Amino acid sequence: xxxxxxxxxxxxxxxxxxxxETARQQLLVxxxxxxxxxxxxxxxxxRMPWMVVDKKYEFDGPNGxxxxxxxFEGRRQLIIYRAFFEPGVFGWPEHACRGCSLGADQVSHxxxxxxxxxxxxxxxxxxxxxxxxxxxxxxxxxxxxxxxNGFDKDFGVAEWHGHNVLFRDGERVFRTxxxxxxxxxxxxxxxxxLDITPLGRQETWEDSPEGYPQSAPYKWWNWHDNYKAEASPxxxxxxxxxxxxxxxxxxxxxxxxxx
Length: 259
Fold this sequence. Notes:
The protein is α+β, with helices and mostly antiparallel strands.
C-alpha cells in the first residue's frame, strides 16, 4: 500500500503456513552458520596479542581526578567508549552526538556486565558538570569521565567514536581490542560487550585458551538487583532455562499433587 507521493513497495509473496515454515527453516540454516562463525571469531579475538599501556592517563570524574586503573573499579576488564560530547559537536551543549546518544540508549543494565568482572565507561572531553547534566536529562547511568591527556589520540578515537578494551593484571594494564565504525552499532547488550573482551562470556561452551575462567551457562545469570544477594539464581530458574520441557512437566506434576 502506498500514498500518491510514495513509491509502491515490492513486498515478498504471500504463502501458506507450510511454505512459510519451509522458508524459515531454509533461512535458519544460514542463521545458525552465522552464529557459529560469530562464536569462532570471538574465540580468535580472545587469542589476539596484547599491548602494554605504560602512559599514566588521567581522567576527571564526578569525585575528582582519577587514573586509568581507577576506571576498572577493581575489575579485570574495562571497555571504554569514546562519546562525542564537546563544543563543535551538533547538539552541544544540550545533547551529545546523535549516534553516540543512540548507542547510550541501547546499553543494558551494567550489573550483568559487572558480574563478569567487566566495567563499561564512557569518556568525552566535556567538563563533568556538563556530563552530569546530560546524564540526568537523558536518564543514563553509565560511568562517564572526562579525558585530559591525549587518551583520544593514543587510542584512535580523536576523530571518530570507538570501543577500546583493556585488561588489568594487578597494576599492569593491556590494550586487547578495538572496534569502531559500523561495529559500534551492534554494541549495547551484555553479550555484544563480553564477546569483544579477552575473557569472553566466560561460559563452559566457549573455545577459550587454557586456564581462562569459565562457569556453566545460565547458572550465573541473575536479576540485576540480586547479584550481591545470591551467588546464583534459584534452581527452578536454572531448571527452566536448561530443560524447559522437563521443567514444564515437573511443574504440572507439582500442580496436580497440590490438587
